[in-house]
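Work through what follows:
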Amino acid sequence: MLLSRHCIDEAATESLGTAIAQAMRQAGLPPLLLTLQGDLGAGKTTLVRSILRALGVRGRIKSPSYALLESYSIDGFGLELKQSVGLTVYHIDLYRFSSPDEWLDAGLGEALGGQALCLVEWPEHAAGLPPADLQLHIAPADPGRMVTMRAGTAAGEGLIDTLRSAQADA
């Protein structure tokens, strides 16, 4: 299942990030793996920052280009449980990796173990990553950028359905 969005500028990219975060909240903030691909400067980190902001992350959101991983805690609201639940979010950047299994050597296997929300930039630099729930590919468009979202799991399909419905309602 595919969905594409043309983001004419940075504000439109941030708006898409907010919409993705809202779709995740509607799904109850399940642990998910989102991968982001695109050239340097395509807007991957801008999109991640807007998702994190919309999920309630406050303070500085740093790019994990040098640290490889930045983690955040967000509070969700479990509708069935009627209580607040926390979720860990990992923002991972694999750009500097040169060998396909380096992500395992770096200890990222635990972060990607399915208990957190993981936003991974440059997934093509790591072989054997778990299947992404939602793959986002960002490519230049004149003007702006085109973001193509591909569902890799039922959870990803649910996010795309929610995004498509929200777009139709707008």
